[in-house]
Amino acid sequence: MRKCCHITSVHPKFDTRIFYKECKSLHKAGYDVVLIYSGDRNDIVDGIKIVGCTKAKSHICRIFRTLKLLLIAYRQNADLYHVHDVELLAVGLFLKLFARKKVIYDVHEDFPEAILSREWLPRLLRKPLSILTSVIEKLISQEFDCIITATPDLKNKFKKCRNVIDIRNYPLVDLIPISLFSTEKKHGNENNLIYVGGLERVRGTREIIQSLKFINPEYNVRLRLIGSFSERDFEKEMLNMPEWKQVKFLGRLSPERTYEYLAQSDIGLVCLYPLRRFLTSYPVKMFEYMAAGIPVVASDFPLWREIIEGNSCGMCIKSLKPEEIARAINYLLAHAEEARMIGLNGRKIIEKKYNWDHEVRKLTKVYEQLFQS
Question: How far apart are CA 175 and CA 303, in angstroms?
């Protein structure tokens, strides 16, 4: 059986893109799939062998952890290696040049751009580190057999590489139940907002929470946050906000549990800052809200406006002011039947166009080509 090995040092073992979409799809296509991740447990889940590598407790320890990841990966003796993080470029390069293996680099986000908004880094170092990372990433990537990017915009950044394809992070429709709101089985008198993803300043976390004070109290709104804070100081700041009393913080959940909460929600929020790396992104949360059949309130980026308002499945806010977020929420809650139809429009376009079934064909085609070459 043809063997492939996915490696991540940053993402959890049950990351939606890596495990549920790519690994499970490849296993279904007949590949022997191994997943190496940062953790302590080894397991076999749905036919996929999962191998843990002890988590790093500091940025310095991550260097030694990378060496350990390389050793574990090499011992798997796979035919093809699929790396998912920029810090694993050296691992991929060793496997390509010295072990003579086929290597895919999966680019989930524009990491050099992300460095510019890392608050834990000294401001003076961000720009030089971003430029250096960009140069190294593009230089090493030219040695790999294929580059997979999560968006078309990222694909353009690797145009000098020999084999580049975008495989977008569209949802697994069959796993996401339709919202109770969309099926007219209203759950009591409480209205639930939901945000899924990283809880960071640049992802609009503060503005989303602040918007609660501008929402009509008659709607009895609660906000569910699913994800994790990347900065402890920012987390403390959010916990001390007066609006936090209307928040239910659920932490990081499995996709199955996340989808259960989506099915109990009325409106999904994705209010990212207008940073360059976000303007052309395809946030999986946005498509998961649509798949659940709930209206989306999103930042007014041209690409997102085309998807959301172009398919009548939500509202794009003109700014990241909390009042603007609340205005859209108030409108949707005041026009329940219209909101229900907007949510159903989202589900329909997901089933028709924005779903993983379309993307998995690209993935399996890439693998077939690499194994035949």
Answer: 26
Strand 43-45 and strand 32-38: pairing? unpaired
- Nearest Cα neighbor of 44 from 53, 30, 33, 54 is 33
Tell me how far apart the alpha carbons of residues 114 and 150 are, in angstroms, rounded to a whole number.
15
What's the fold here for domain 3-169+356-372?
Rossmann fold (3.40.50)
Q: 159: pLDDT confidence band, cut at 50, 70 and 90? A: confident
Q: What is the pLDDT of residue 121?
A: 83
Q: By the 8 A CB rule, do 343 and 179 touch? A: yes
pLDDT in tens, 249-261: 999 999 999 999 9
* CB-CB neighbours of 252 under 10 Å: 13
Which pLDDT belongs to residue 182?
63
Q: C-alpha distances in angstroms, 43 versus 30, 40, 48, 53, 289?
A: 19, 10, 8, 12, 31
Does residue 190 register a pLDDT over 80? yes
Question: What percent of the chain clears pLDDT 90, i.e. is strictly above it?
Answer: 82
Is the separation of the CB atoms in 119 and 97 below 8 Å? no
How many other CB atoms sit within 10 Å of the CB of residue 303? 15
Nearest alpha carbon to residue 339 among 317, 313, 316: 313
Residue 13 is encoded by which pair of tokens? 């073992």
- Statement: 173-352 belongs to CATH 3.40.50.2000: yes
Strand partners, 150: none
Name the band, by pLDDT with cuts 50, 70 and 90, for residue 185.
very low
What angle is formed at CA 104 by the lines to CA 21 and CA 363, rounded to 5 degrees? Answer: 40
d(CA 126, CA 143): 26
**pTM for the model:** 0.90
Q: Structural domain boundaries of the chain?
A: 3-169+356-372, 173-352
- In order of 2, 82, 85, 132, 222, the CA distances from 37 in angstroms are 21, 12, 11, 26, 35
Q: How far is CA 171 from CA 166, 168, 305, 335, 354, in A?
A: 15, 9, 19, 27, 7
21-43 CB burial, b ≥16 within 10 A, e <16:
bbbbbbbeeebbbbbbbbeeeee
For β-strands 102-107 and 80-83, DSSP reports them as: parallel
The answer to whether 3-169+356-372 and 173-352 have equal CATH topology is: yes
